[in-house]
Amino acid sequence: MSNPLALYQFAGDDREIGRAHGEALRGEIADLLERRSHALQEMGGQSFEVLADIARRAGFLEAAKRWTPHLVEEIRGIGEGANLTFPVAFAWQLLDELEWLCRAPSEIRAGPGRCSALSVFGGDGATLLAQNADMGASF
Fold first, then answer.
1. Residue 113 pLDDT
2. How many whole angstroms separate alpha carbon 87 and alpha carbon 34?
3. In sequence order, what DSSP letters do the residues of 57-123 get, joined into one string?
4. How far is it, in rounded angstroms, from Cα 84 to Cα 53?
5. What is the DSSP string of 8-72?
6. Which whole-number Å values give the CA distances from 48 to 15, 30, 56, 73, 98, in the listed order?
7. What is the C-alpha R_g of the chain?
8. pLDDT 10s digit of each residue in the chain, 139 long?
9. pLDDT value at position 16?
């Protein structure tokens, strides 16, 4: 198989799990951010830093802190492990949401062809999460 499915297991509190995730995938994360920067340019010349500011002004972080504070800490840890600032790590989690803020309404794709996610909760407390990224070849 040319692209085998990788399985990672991390332990600790939310931030420690995120930090281990960021450290384990630091190279892949840096490569992905570099390769995807051209797609951001197509969204109106944005950078991850600009998107982070948009996310802050839109109130996404405040909502995440209220409803999913454990995920905010995990993202904070991913940023630390991957050598990213927290605002950039957080903005990266919101690419679909940020598209709504960065593009004209007529340019936004909706409906089929968007990302899908699923989770399976095991009786032993283990959880399996999966997500695809249907953002097209340029992204």
1. 57
2. 16
3. HHTHHHHHHHH-HHHHHHHHHHHHHHT--HHHHHHHTTHHHHHHHHS-GGG---STTS--EEEEE-T
4. 15
5. ----SSHHHHHHHHHHHTHHHHHHHHHHHHHHHHHTTS--HHHHHHHHHHHTHHHHHHHH-HHHH
6. 22, 12, 12, 19, 10
7. 16
8. 455 778 899 999 999 999 999 999 999 999 888 877 766 666 566 677 777 777 778 888 999 999 999 999 999 999 999 999 998 899 888 876 666 666 655 555 555 556 677 788 877 878 887 777 665 554 4
9. 98
pTM: 0.71
The label of the residue with tokens 């990302």 reads 115
Contact 49, 87 (CB under 8 A): yes
Q: How high is the pLDDT of residue 100? A: 63
Report the alpha-carbon distance of residue 84 to residue 97 in Å, rounded.
20
Give dist(CA 107, CA 77) in Å, integer: 34
Let me know: does 23 contact 16? Beta carbons within 8 Å. Answer: no
